[in-house]
Sequence to fold (270 residues):
Amino acid sequence: MSGKLAGRAAVVTGAGRGIGQAIVQRLTEDGARVAALDMDEAAAKASGAELGLQCNVADSADVARCIRAARAAFGRLDIAVNNAGTGRADGDGSDAFYEAMGRRNAELAEQGSSDIVVDHLIHMGDEGWAGVLAVNLNGTFYVCREFTRVLAEDGNPGAIINISSTSAQSGEGSAHYVASKAAVIGLTRQLARELAPRQIRVNAVAPGPTNTPIMHGIPDEWIKAMEASVPLGRMAQPSEIAAAVAYLASDDASFVNGSVLVANGASYYF
Fold:
């Protein structure tokens, strides 16, 4: 197969839908052999990837199993994309948060004012906090570590692309989500320096609001506010984020390392 990524092999986490599925499709179009990793095995297999595997990125042993399986299937690995992420976890107080928001919005619509305070932090339990970080931050670390181990064993260069978020800079969103996405940027920059002697480039993409399934659980008022905050007047499509990932994975970005490529329609500047 021809293309900028011909002859290369990639693993993509959270690949069963949304941005992850779009990344699988774009890397495949550019010539790469792709392993799709997702908690939903059926979705991973239906993503269009050559190899679909069920994987819990919050489990380091499961990550190692899947990355080794991808290397065995393809004979090599060259690209890792850490897209798996979540904005909610059991016990994180989201239900109380959205319930209070709904009551406040109703009072504003009826009365023009409201005394209801919409809190999230005070309702967030330890389990909920840890659950989001386990996927967004720990999962990214586990994939970076096992991918690097494989490349070190094989003596190959490579590229890691971590998906962060504009919220890491703006602070918009819940505490566990924003903290995890900010930490991903710090991890990206540290690894870019550490892994440079191995010729492994590490970069991040920070999307703004994107039309993905995760948006379906957000109240319409928030969706409209997010769209209004973007100077381009709309959310991104998953394919637009995938294009940024494909660039960072390619030789066109051969001297780009430790960078955060912001794809948010100018809604916020890093």
About this structure: The radius of gyration is 19 Å. The chain has a mean pLDDT of 93.
